Amino acid sequence: MSDDELQVSELADDAVMLDVREPDEWTAGHAPGAVHIPLGELSTRTEELPSVDGGLPVVCRSGGRSGRAVEWLRGNGFEVRNVAGGMQAWQGAGKEMVAESGGEPTVS
């Protein structure tokens, strides 16, 4: 693990973070404190990024897309950290999740 990464265990269940997954993935299940900006829209929506002490956690399904987002955001002056293992690790750790559909949240 590098300084650029956060383990799920380091985050509170209601942590504010950036979720860069696609809309259908977000709808299926996400962390309750997450802000949704799909990776493809990130460059035009940076004004929506929340400010978080210690760096904004960035999450996707498994860590790949969020890693690319972290690289781009850092290059543009943002303090961010990749969530190792993504939402799969979040769900695996038994962290709280919500689904936009109101059904049982899942990581798709």
UniProtKB/TrEMBL annotation:
Keyword field contains Cytoplasm: no
Gene3D superfamilies (UniProt xref): Rhodanese-like domain (3.40.250.10)
Pfam family, one: Rhodanese
GO molecular function, one term: transferase activity
Domain Rhodanese: 11-99
InterPro entries linked: GlpE_sulfurtransferase (IPR050229), Rhodanese-like_dom (IPR001763), Rhodanese-like_dom_sf (IPR036873)
SUPFAM superfamilies: Rhodanese/Cell cycle control phosphatase
Coiled coil: none
Keywords tagged on the record: Transferase
PROSITE patterns in the cross-refs: RHODANESE_3 (PS50206)
Xref: PANTHER family: FAD-DEPENDENT OXIDOREDUCTASE, PYRIDINE NUCLEOTIDE-DISULPHIDE OXIDOREDUCTASE
Annotated protein name in UniProt: Rhodanese-related sulfurtransferase
Organism ancestry: Bacteria, Bacillati, Actinomycetota, Actinomycetes, Micrococcales
